[in-house]
Write a structure and sequence with these properties.
Family: Belongs to the 3-oxoacid CoA-transferase subunit A family.
Number of strands: 13
Strand order of the largest sheet: 4-3-2-1-8-11-13
Shape: globular
Largest sheet: 7 strands, parallel
Pfam families: CoA_trans
Order of helices and strands: HEHEHEHEHEEEEEEHEEE
Strand content: 25-35%
Keywords: Transferase
Protein name: 3-oxoacid CoA-transferase subunit A
Structural class: alpha/beta
InterPro entries: 3-oxoacid_CoA-transf_A, CoA_trans_fam_I, CoA_transf_BS, NagB/RpiA_transferase-like
Radius of gyration: 18 Å
Length: 231
Amino acid sequence: MIQKRFENTAKAVADIHDGATLLVGGFGGSGLPSHLIAALVDQGAKDLTVVSNNIGAVSDGVAALISNNQVKKIICSFPVGPHADDLIARLQNGTIELEISPQGTLAERIRAGGAGIPAFFTPTAAHTELGEGKETRMYNGRLHVLEQAIVGDYAFIKGYRADRWGNLVYNKTQRNFNPVMATAAKITIAEVDEIVEVGELDPENIATQSVYVHRLVKLEAECEGRVLVNG
């Protein structure tokens, strides 16, 4: 019997090591794996490279890892927001590295990583500071920039329902960066609201297949005593 369910988020993140590359799903607070992030804050792994669309939208997002001195480098498309002051201060004193990637390019870099494509050319960021120092080529009379794929040691994602094999269904806008990040990590950990038996999910609604999900945590027990974004 395939068993991917973990008792709690603490056990699910216990083996994340210093220096790991972590993909964090969500778009602002929607689809944000808040409980997994909180567990990693408690676990304390350091020198992380974190890949996320944004860092400053909510206090229990990637900003929590940054303020806890756990992040060495952040790769994102949107580093501004109400919690960006801490990031700016760390950039100025050299304690954190920031790599900005246009949103569509970021999504494609992660998708490419999951598909085994090492790099691709895109016209986005050509003739801008974001394209400086990167290989370029002309295609159809337009300059393109070579972008490297992104893969992670771990991915944190948020789903709505899962079966015990790890097939996932998302609730509306939870389907942002979560499905693509699930494919691009060695170990994908999903927090979900409900875990059901195999066969109970409509196959037409499954957006992330079980082959990409390695660990599951149901949030019912995790929610007690915590007020976190759970969209």
